[in-house]
Amino acid sequence: MLLDTNAWIEYFKGTKKGLQVREILHSKQCYTCSISLAELSEWIEKENIDRSEKLNGVKSQSTIVFPDARTLESAGIIKCRKRKTFKDFGMIDAIILATAKTYGLQIVTGDSHFKDENVFML
Fold it and tell me: For the PIN domain, which residue ranges apply (predicted)?
């Protein structure tokens, strides 16, 4: 399962959804797209919390996967198509979705932008 940035944030906040993520982390093989590290770093900076603890947690509890050139090209197409439904669908979400498709992974998220995709909604 590919944990979206949203899933990690819920996990770090210790919310009800975060408890679901915790269960998934303990019961499934989990992955995180490398681009999520940038989003998490931004969130950590805004929240003024311990960067190394959180990012090391992501790296130790999941395998970081990297989008290749073909996946990134696919992300551009995905973004254009998803924008027909979600006007604010961004490139980072497109890269995460393309990465999940490339690796054949289900996305774990609470983000409605991934609706109608192969997701486990929190």
Answer: 1-116
